[in-house]
Amino acid sequence: MTSLSTKHLLGIKDLNKQDIELILDTAQSFKEVINRPIKKVPSLRDVTIANLFFENSTRTRISFELAQKRLGADIINFSASTSSVKKGETLIDTANNILAMKVDMIVMRHSSPGACVFLSKKVKAQIINAGDGTHEHPTQALLDAYSIREKLGTLKNVKVVIVGDILHSRVALSNILLLNKMGAKVKVCGPLNLIPKYIHSLGVDVETNLKKALEWCDVANMLRIQLERQDTKYFPSLREYSLLYQLNREVLDEIKKDIIIMHPGPINRGVEVTSDIADSKYSIILEQVENGVAVRMAVMYLLAGKKAE
Ligand code: CP
């Protein structure tokens, strides 16, 4: 297969197994490109991409921008905090005004779940979801999958535990959907009130004991507590959460096995993971960031090809 089944990347939900394999294989070629002395290819020379960030980002925004530059695209960076959104302009008006300047593709991060799906129905551009509220973060899941596959050679039957605030995490949902499609085994671990009630319908098991979850897994994906999305107090204090769910030297020594440690970032050091473990030989956190550029190059390259079909 050489073409994606979808024109936009709105969520992992819309990708099939062949799409995911195609993106990961294409990313592998682009990883070779970005490790060469000349890191650029002119694949998107005639494509103009707008990065619309209505919510804060460090990794995703920079990674998309770098990926676009490596592919030779023309880019526009839009940040809601310095735009006319502050004067009351709507999402559709903002997007249409940008598109009037002949933009082909929009990469958007927004705090509202479904904002990218909504936009894709209203404007004539290809849309890539760079994270929509508590819904999906498809390129994060793709780069996480790429990083696991690079380390272990496969995703099939790999045991992945996702630890932390599952309820508010778009990274968790996109990872669960992707890993299930690729034949991995997934568990979630955290306080029960931070795990959605529908989790079993996603084909995922729940383990509330961190040590047991770590003993089971090959890979632990540690998530941040998303205090900015919580409208109520889910536990007495971060200290109490850390006592039960922090990945630290003591817990790792107890499980007596080597596991791969991942984190999408930003890390709250000393809360979900201690600094020594985040920076240890088990951690592939910065490899995830490196792989993100190649994965996003693959996504935009393949979507641009879809438009040309
Ligand atoms: N992983 C991730 O989405 O990080 P940013 O919020 O910094 O983009």
SSE-based structural type: alpha/beta
Mean pLDDT over the residues: 95
N-to-C SSE series?
HEHEHEHEHEHEEHEHHEHH
Largest pleated sheet: 5 strands, parallel
The helix fraction, in percent, is 40-55%
Summarize the structure.
The protein is α/β, with parallel strands linked by helices. The protein has helices at 17-34, 59-70, 91-99, 115-122, 138-152, 170-181, 210-216, 238-245, 249-255, 275-278, 285-308, and strands at residues 48-53, 74-79, 105-110, 126-132, 159-163, 185-189, 205-207, 219-222, 260-262.
Question: Would you write up a description of this structure?
Answer:
By secondary structure, the protein is of the alpha/beta class. It has helices at 17-34, 59-70, 91-99, 115-122, 138-152, 170-181, 210-216, 238-245, 249-255, 275-278, 285-308, and strands at residues 48-53, 74-79, 105-110, 126-132, 159-163, 185-189, 205-207, 219-222, 260-262. The strands form two sheets. A five-stranded parallel beta sheet has the order 7-6-5-8-9. Helix 1 (17-34) crosses helix 11 (285-308). The longest helix has 24 residues, at 285-308. The protein is globular. The mean pLDDT is 95. Phosphoric acid mono(formamide)ester binds next to helix 2. Phosphoric acid mono(formamide)ester (CP) binds at residues 57-60, 131, 137, 140, 264-266.
